[in-house]
Fold this sequence. Notes:
The chain is α/β, with parallel strands linked by helices.
Amino acid sequence: MITSTSNSQIRHVAMLQKKARYRNSEGQFVAEGIKMVLETPPELLSRIYVSEDFQPEKQVRAWLSDKSCEVVSSKVFKELSMTQTPQGILAVVHMSRPTPEEILSSGDCFLILENLQDPGNLGTIIRTAEGAGIDGIFMNKTCVDIYNPKVVRSTMGSLYRVPFVYTDDLQSLIKNMKTRGVRLFAAHLKGEKAYYEENLSGPCAFLIGNEANGLSDETAALADVYIKIPMLGKVESLNAAMAAGILMYEMRRQKATAHLGNHHP
């Protein structure tokens, strides 16, 4: 059992929890909690740590039975944990790093996120993207780190199933999409039509901007269509994750309707 926070393994985990640059250089991050650890694809699992007082249920014990775990003292585990009430289990996980090309050739519905800053928002967007059947997410380098412990937790495992990539150059990525026939929709105050009045049933991507400032002018200018989400009351705009969710599910609804239409002449 590891009882010291100065142990090299423990220092490694602590650095992964706290520093984005360290995570990137090591190509690893920390997944904390029973759900996140159990949903980790086996090929990405590096090492599992459990607290000495961790008492897994039968299903969790069965899952752990063929895996090697490092047991740490409850004091050390509390030091490592980033949650108020630690569940007593965490894993060091290898990052999955698909290329933009791999994501673009895997489907035709995408999200492009620019300068998103809130970890909870990004986590919610990833979960919602999985639910709505989005094929991939692209982010510019100034978005919040997807491997930030708060983001990881709030994805509830979707992080492992929705391909994503950070890109240095949104502009050339968007141009590449356009050559593939993907239409780009930006939720924008200059939008003439409501989002549900546009045809979202073909290959499409949604541009979602910063929580406070929206999309930069350069990125917004690359959209094919500006759309708006109509507002009642005195509200001017929605939370970024909420706006993304509304657009993704309208896309999913239209695709489902088009699919049904194809089957019922």
